Amino acid sequence: MEIRQIPSISDIDSVAWNNLTGSSYPFLRHEFLLALEQSGSVSAKTGWTPAHLIILEANELIAFMPLYLKDHSWGEYVFDHQWASAYHQNSLEYYPKYLTAIPFTPCQGPRIVINKAFNSLEIYKIFLHTLQKIASAKNISTWHCLFPSAKEVDIFRSLNLYIREGVQFQWFNRDYQNFDDFLAGLTSSKRKMIKRERKRIAEQGVTLIQLNGAEVTESQWETFFNFYAMTYLKKGSEPYLTLEFFLEIARTMGEQLLLVFALNDQRPVAAALSFIGSDTLYGRYWGCYEEYHSLHFETCYYQGIDYCIEHHLKRFDSGAQGEHKIARGFEPVTTYSAHWIKDAGFADAIGRFLQREKIATQQYKASASTYLPFKA
Questions:
Q1: 2-167+333-369 falls under which CATH superfamily?
Q2: Shortest CA distance to 272 belongs to which of 305, 244, 235, 248?
Q3: N or C: fewer beta carbons within 10 Å in the chain?
Q4: Distance of CA 295 to the CA centre of its chain
């Protein structure tokens, strides 16, 4: 076996890469990661320097791990700013750090992909040993793996990495025949609330259309991008992704994109973009020019539920945060991250912090579950 560190996804053949990943989890496709790099969304300039690890045998790709050198913690959705501050207060450098994640994408999924003919645990050990060796040589403080699959979490635990827990809200399809079938399982008050919210959309003259990414025109992508950017500009920040990124993934993997437009008098007033996996819809980006009552709920949630039911998808992962999702049938689920801390003293302190945080996180999840709108 030969392990290499490469500065770009373009250094690996896309067919070999995708033969390992498949297309069930769209964010690991070669096309997605390459678009991030080629569009300038991910680069040294934006603080996301690609440093991917791959393993070859007889020049054949058998395993890879997306890896980025970070000099900040933005765009990650697992917040370690307090850890960085503690390092600074103790005259230690927290940055640069290593990060294995899908940039700007808080969606659970595989983070290390391995040819099934090889021993997974041994490959994980090789990657971890290599990371630790490089970190020591280059004075890199930590390595973090964000939103890995449940199977990977078990492996990371066996390798004595620190495991951090979080909570997101996701919708699950219980073989519903249509949206009314879903509503029938809710309490009367929540059923009436959702029906009223959907009715308000029509009363305001708003209609919704769903477009597959492959059929969206460049002009429509430009309109969507302006909505997306507006979400960030309203908060006084710049958008992470560029228009070029969206145009590129539409060209290379458009069949896995779902774009929803909200129209008033045939004029777009809002839009939401989701990614389509083999059994999951991943809600990602949204924006609007004008405020309409319940428009966010309809565009980002109810349209996605409609799509999942119609296309028999099992799950709707609508992204990070959002307690307002609970009343609309999104259930709390545990998310994870894994962490390696080079400094022994900080490793111990962070380990103790995570133990306390885990208790609070699990209590929060249990409490959130009591507000679910389903009938007993």
A1: Gcn5-related N-acetyltransferase (GNAT) (3.40.630.30)
A2: 305
A3: C
A4: 23
- φ, ψ (nearest 5 deg) of residue 139: 60, 50
Identify the burial level of 369 via C-beta atoms within 10 angstroms of its C-beta, where 0-12 means exposed, 13-18 middle and 19 or more buried: exposed
pTM: 0.96
Band of residue 247 on the pLDDT scale cut at 50, 70, 90:
very high
Class of domain 174-313: alpha beta
Task: Dump strand ranges (E) for 173-205.
Answer: none
Q: Which helix (H) or strand (E) holds 322?
A: none
2-167+333-369 and 174-313: same fold? yes
Contact 212, 254 (CB under 8 A): yes
Question: How far apart (Å, rounded) are the C-alpha atoms in residues 343 and 141?
Answer: 7
Closest CA to 342 of 79, 98, 34: 98
Q: Which residue has the tokens 């259930």?
A: 331
Query: What is the tens place of the pLDDT at every residue in 89-145?
Result: 999 999 999 999 999 999 999 999 999 999 899 999 999 999 999 999 999 999 999
Chain-centre distance for alpha carbon 8: 20
Residue with tokens 């008098």: 265
- Beta strands at 331-341 and 162-172: parallel, antiparallel or unpaired: antiparallel
